[in-house]
Design goal:
The complex is a heterodimer of chains A (109) and B (118). Chain A contains no helices and eleven strands. Chain A is mostly beta strands and 109 residues long. In chain A, the strands form two sheets. In chain A, strands 2, 4, 5, 6, 9, 10 and 11 form a seven-stranded mixed sheet that branches. The chains are: A mainly beta (109), B mainly beta (118).
Chain lengths: 109, 118
């Protein structure tokens, strides 16, 4: 399973809408997660099951998609949202490898 | 809220074995999987493997021949051993709790940098 994230970098201003894409090389149903990572910090789970927000995650973060195409939308960027975002899935079959996408960096324009 | 904390040497010699421990506090090891993930400097995330609360292990095929993950339920800890290390194994190593239900890592340690150098 390969997860391809696009774009690699997104340059936006605070208040703008961010749309991040994650495509899987094979169908993964809705078993996809999104993470946010800030410099020097561990990743933080934002979204699981493609569209469910993890505990404490603001409503401006929305996940969508199923099968092979997924999207993370940040409706209105806050200063603390500028970070790198990763998607993650597991190949089908018990004990199958877990895979991360290459990441999308959301930077201040 | 469960918390995870990595510990271990920050420097390992080439060809030797990297050993790290993750201590879990605020919760039991039961009913979850416990995982190691690494991130080379400036790079993305790479899953190393995980162990179930019953002791079953699953490893990344690219690292499988060098990796061992074990569990110590009496200490609420799990450990990573990576043998025959090279400079390519230099990375921040994270321990994390893996939810088998949702197939995501829902709690992470802060990470520890391990450098491989002579």
């Amino acid at each position: 399973l390969v997860l391809t994230q696009s774009p690699a970098t997104l340059s936006l201003s605070p208040g703008e809408r961010a749309t991040l894409s994650c495509r899987a090389s094979q169908s993964v149903s809705t078993y996809l997660g999104w993470y946010q990572q800030k410099p020097g910090q561990a990743p933080r789970l934002l979204i699981y099951d493609a569209s469910k927000r993890a505990t404490g995650i603001p409503a401006r973060f929305r996940g969508s998609g199923s099968g092979t195409a997924f999207t993370l939308t940040i409706s209105s960027l806050e200063p603390e949202d500028f970070a790198v975002y990763y998607c993650q899935q597991r190949s089908s079959g018990g004990g199958a490898p877990l895979t991360f996408g290459g990441g999308t960096k959301v930077e201040i324009k | 809220q469960v918390q995870l904390q990595e510990s271990g040497p920050g420097l390992v010699r080439p060809s030797e074995t990297l050993s790290l421990t993750c201590t879990v506090s605020g919760g039991s090891l039961n009913n979850y999987y416990w995982s190691w993930i690494r991130q080379a400097p400036g790079k993305g995330l790479e899953w190393i493997g995980y162990i179930s609360y019953s002791g079953t292990t699953y490893y990344n095929p690219s690292l499988e021949r060098r990796v061992t993950i074990s569990l110590d339920t009496s200490e609420n800890q799990f450990s990573l051993k990576l043998s025959s290390v090279t400079a390519a194994d230099t990375a921040v190593y994270y321990c994390a709790r893996y939810s088998g239900t949702w197939v995501v890592f829902d709690n992470w340690g802060q990470g520890t940098l391990v450098a491989v150098s002579s």
